[in-house]
Write a structure and sequence with these properties.
By secondary structure, the protein is α+β, with helices and mostly antiparallel strands. It folds into 2 domains: 18-28 and 43-162, Uridine Diphospho-n-acetylenolpyruvylglucosamine Reductase, domain 3 (2-Layer Sandwich); 164-258, CO dehydrogenase flavoprotein, C-terminal domain (Enolase-like, domain 1). Helix content is 28%, strand content 23%. The protein is built from 9 helices and 13 strands. The chain has helices at 61-65, 77-85, 90-95, 98-104, 110-117, 136-139, 161-164, 217-227, 239-258; strands at residues 14-17, 33-36, 45-47, 53-56, 121-125, 131-135, 140-142, 145-146, 153-159, 167-173, 183-189, 195-200, 207-211. The protein has a 5-stranded antiparallel beta sheet. The chain is globular. 40% of the residues are buried. Bound molecules: flavin-adenine dinucleotide.
């Protein structure tokens, strides 16, 4: 277990350990050791003076869900919706970390959904003692793939104030009642009128579309088809179903946020 950044060193066959809910859930050929991040004592959630929120990578899903709502933070209900989309027991939610969920990079990773939709930026600690920042929507690059290089650690996810204050609309579906997400779509309307649509779970990596104002139905559908080609195929849903569902959800979210009093569905 590392207790300081200086101790955060990884041998060739060692990986970071978050809550371990995935690492200890199946055989891990090729992994010779794990460096536990939970001893680093990172504050789970830090409110910023400018209205932003910093989530430590080791923040558990339960801690995120319990974070108190703040006045004017329209996107706050997304925290609980995203945590509940990971259909584990309370035991899993108490150990699974936000960073572990993002770094695992499954299409149905709800922390990727949440933080990508809110323009989250990943703060990455590099082995040479420096750091770099990558938007979460670019950090996850494919199924079980991220931009993280060996020895790099996701330290935190920084959520800016503006998206947190947005009005949001959400749609999620699973093929099975208690199954993993087949499509998870979040739309935002920022206070400056910007419309941002984030599609996850239906695709191998997150996709985000941004418009200066609410687009027409046709413009939105065309933009999705021009942008997204990697509709995901696994037992949780076929690509054509995921595409059709995402297009439908995107349109429903667009209509909802176009109305005067739209909000989380
Ligand atoms: C019942 C059940 C349901 C589940 N449902 C889902 C689901 O719907 N969607 C889903 O995505 N997952 C699901 N999982 C898998 C897993 O539990 C979650 O993805 C969980 O959030 C992983 O977090 P963790 O902290 O336990 O990660 P760990 O198991 O500790 O690590 C996961 C991976 O991330 C790496 N890692 C962890 N933290 C960092 C860091 N800070 N920096 C760099 N790399 C890091 C590890 O090296 C490892 O490769 C489920 C698991 C169970 C048991």
């Amino acid at each position: 277990m590392a207790s300081s950044r200086a101790e955060l060193r990884f041998a060739d066959d060692e990986v970071p350990l978050g809550g371990g809910t995935w690492l200890f859930s199946e055989e891990q050929p090729g992994i010779g050791g794990m460096v536990d991040l939970t001893g680093l004592g990172w504050e789970p959630l830090v409110e910023q003076a400018d209205g932003g929120l910093t989530i430590a990578a080791t923040c558990t899903l339960a801690e995120l869900r319990a974070h108190p709502e703040r006045a004017g933070r329209g996107a706050h209900p997304l925290f609980a919706l995203a945590v509940d989309a990971l259909l584990g027991s309370w035991k899993i939610h108490r150990f699974a970390t936000v960073g572990g969920n993002i770094c695992l990079a499954l299409p149905a990773g709800p922390m990727t959904t949440l933080t990508a939709a809110l323009d989250g930026v990943g703060l990455i600690w590099t082995p040479d003692g420096t750091e770099r920042r990558v938007p979460i929507v670019e950090l996850v690059t494919g199924v079980r793939q991220t931009v993280l290089r060996h020895g790099e650690v996701l330290r935190a996810i920084e959520l800016p104030a503006l998206p947190l204050a947005a009005r949001v609309a959400v749609r999620r579906i699973s093929l099975a009642e208690l199954g993993r997400s087949g499509a998870f779509v979040i739309a935002r309307r920022d206070v400056d009128g910007t419309f941002v649509l984030t599609i996850t779970a239906a695709t191998s990596r997150p996709h985000q579309l941004r418009f200066a104002s609410i687009p027409s139905a046709t413009a939105l559908a065309n933009a999705i088809d021009e942008t997204v080609a990697d509709w995901y195929d696994d037992p949780h849903g076929a690509p054509d179903w995921r595409r059709a569902t995402s297009l439908l959800f995107a349109e429903e979210c667009r209509v909802e946020l176009d109305s005067a009093d739209g909000g989380v569905a």
